[in-house]
Amino acid sequence: MRTFFYCIGQGLANTRRNILFSIASVATVSACIFLFCMFFSIIANVRSIVYTAETTVGITVFFDESADDAAKESVKQAIMDRGGVKKIVYTSAEEAWEEFKTEYFGEDAEELSEAYADDNPLADSDSYEIFLNDIEDQEAMAEYIAGLPGVRQVNYANTVVSVLKSLNKVVSILSIVIIGVLVAVSVFLISNTISVAAAFRKRENEIMRLIGATDFMIRAPFVVEGLLIGLLGALIPLAAVYYIYGRVMEYFTAWLSGLGTGFELMGLVPLDIIFPYLAGCGLLFGAGIGFIVSFFTIRKHLRV
Amino acid sequence: MIILENVSKTYQTGVRAVKDLNLMVEDGEFVFITGKSGSGKSTLFRLLTRELKPTEGSIMVNDFDLDSIRRRQIPRFRRSIGVVFQDFRLLNDRNVYENVAFAQRVIGASPNEIKSNVPRMLQLTGLSHKYKNMPYELSGGEQQRVAIARALVNQPRIILADEPTGNLDETNTMEIMKLLEDINRMGTTVIVITHSMSMLESMKKRVISMEKGRIVSDTGSERKNKGAGAAAGTESTSGSRAGVIRRRRRSI
Q: Using DSSP, how many helices (H) and how many strands (E) does chain B show?
C-alpha cells in the first residue's frame, strides 16, 4: 500500500515537472477521444435511424387481378421459404381504403368518401407488407418477389436504404481513418512525454537501481503518469461531449417537432442511453493508451 | 564476504577490462583497490554491484552468486551493499533528510523506520544540524557524508566506494576516510577504490593493486601467505579461495 501511494505521488510529481509535454499529450488524447465520441454518436444515430427504417419501412406486394386466395397464399409461402423475414402483414382492399380515407380525408372521411360507398377505388389493391430482419436484404428480396407468379407490383424504400447504407459506410471509414491518425499522434506524444520524464529522472533512476529498488518501483511512476495523461485526456472531451450532445439534442427535438407529425422516429438517441457507452469507451481508450504506451516506452528506456 | 574466482570481463568492443581475477574479502575487512586509469578498477566495481556480468569466472557477494542470480533477486542483493561515488550523486531537488530517506522509501520502508533510521544516520555522519539544507548549500565533504549516510541507511553488509575522495581537498579526504573507518569498526565491510597513494600510506589497510586488468599485488594475501608459509607452507591462497567458494555454494 505504501509503495502504491509512493508510486502515485511520484507519477503526479513527474506530470507536474513535465507539465508542457503532459499538456500536449492530454490535448492530443482529448482531441482523439472527442472525435471518437462524435463519430460514435453519428454512427449510433445512423444505426438508430436504420433500425427505425427496418421496423417501419417494408416491402409492399400487390397481386395480379386474376390472383385468387390460393395464389396469394403460395406467394406468401415462397417469401417465407426464402428466409430473413421478420413478419408479413396482409392488408385487404377494404382495409387499404379505410386507411386511405383516414389519412387523406381526416375527420371528414365518411362525408367526403360517400360517393365511393359501393365502389371501392382500391379494389384489387390488397397487399402483403413484408418486414425483413436486415434492411440490406430489401433490394434482393424485392427482386425475388417481383419474379414470383401472381405478383403485379412491388414497392420498397430503395432510396432510403441506399442512402442509409452509403452514409453509414462513409462515416465508418472516415472515423476509422481520422481516429487512426489521432491514435498514432497520441502514441507518439505520450511516448515522447514519458521519454522526456525518463531522461529527466535518469540520475534518480540510476540511484534507485543501485540502492535496490525493484523494477516495479522504478517503472510504476512513469506508468502512473501515462495513466493520468490518458484519463485526463478522456475526462475533458467526455464533459464537452455531454454538454454538446445535450444541446444538439434539445435543438434537434425542437426542430423535428416544428416539422409536424411523422418525423418523431428520426429523433436522436437519448443522452442517458448513449453517454454510458461513450464514457465507458472513452475512459477505457484513454486509460488503455496511457498505460500501454507508457509501459512499453519505459521498458525500453529503463533496462534494469 | 566477497569471493572472485578466475573472473574476466571482455566488453563487446573486444576490450578485455579484467583478466583472471582471484580475490577474497572477509566480512568486516577494510580494503583499498588501487591502480592507474584503465587498470580495471571501475569494471571490478561494476562487477561487484552486478551492473556487469563477468564473461568468465564466478563472483559471490554476501552469499549471492552473481553469475546465476535471477533478475528479480538483484534488488535484494543490492540492498545488501551500499554504494558511494566520486560525484556524490545526490538529488539536488531534495534536502539532506530527503536524500537519505529516499534510499529507504524506494525499498518500501515504513514511515516509522524512516523516522528512526534517517536521523540516526545523519548523526553518525555528523550532519544532524544540516538536515534541512539542500545539497548545493553543502561543501564537497558534507555532500559526500550525505552520500555515505544514504548508502548506510539500509544497513548494508558492504560499503563499496568508487573514488569517494576524488573531488575533495586533503582535510575533507581525511574526514571521509575517518568516517569510513568508523563504519568499518562497527562491522561493515568497506571497499574503497582509489588512486591516492598518500591515503594508502596513511591508512595502513589491505591494498589490492591492479594493472592492465590483473591484480599485481595484494598486501592481504601477502600477509596470509607469510602466515600460512610459517604454519605449513603448502596451500596457495587461490587454492583456499576455490575451496571456500565451493563450500559456500554447497551451503547455499
A: 9, 10
Q: Given A2, A211, A217, which is nearest B103 (Cβ)?
A: A211
Task: Verify whether the Cβ–Cβ distance B91 to A204 is below 8 Å.
Answer: yes
- Select from 3.40.50.2000, 3.20.20.70, 3.40.50.1000, 3.40.50.300 the CATH code of B2-80+157-251: 3.40.50.300
- Inter-chain contacts counted by CB atoms under 8 A, chains A and B: 49
pLDDT in tens, A84-110: 888 888 887 777 777 777 766 666 666
Strand duo B214-218 + B206-211: pairing: antiparallel
Q: Cell numbers of A164, please?
A: 442509409
Tell me the chain B residues in contact with residue A204 when contact means C-beta distances shorter than 8 Å.
91
Chain A residues with at least one Cβ partner in B under 8 Å: 2-3, 6, 203-204, 206-215, 217, 304
- CA proximity to A52, closest of A276, A277, A262: A262
Long-range contacts, B243-247 (Cβ 8 Å, 24+): B244/B3, B244/B24, B245/B3, B245/B5, B245/B58, B245/B60
- Enumerate the residues of chain A whose CB falls inside 8 A of the CB of residue B78: 209-212
Domains and CATH numbers, chain A: 2-53+161-301 (no CATH), 58-156 (3.30.70.3040)
**Confidence class for position A73, pLDDT limits 50, 70, 90:** confident
B49 interaction partners in chain A (CB closer than 8 Å): 210
Could you tell me if B220 and B46 are in contact, meaning their C-beta atoms sit under 8 angstroms apart?
A: no
pLDDT of A176-204, one tens digit each? Answer: 888 788 788 888 888 887 888 788 788 88
ipTM of the complex: 0.79
The verdict on a CB contact (< 8 Å) between B105 and A6 is: yes
What ranges do the domains of chain B cover? 2-80+157-251, 90-155
Q: What is the CA radius of gyration of chain A?
A: 31
- Nearest-Cα distance to chain A for B58, in Å, is 21
Q: Is A203 close to B107, i.e. CB distance below 8 A? A: no
Do you know the residue count of chain B?
A: 252
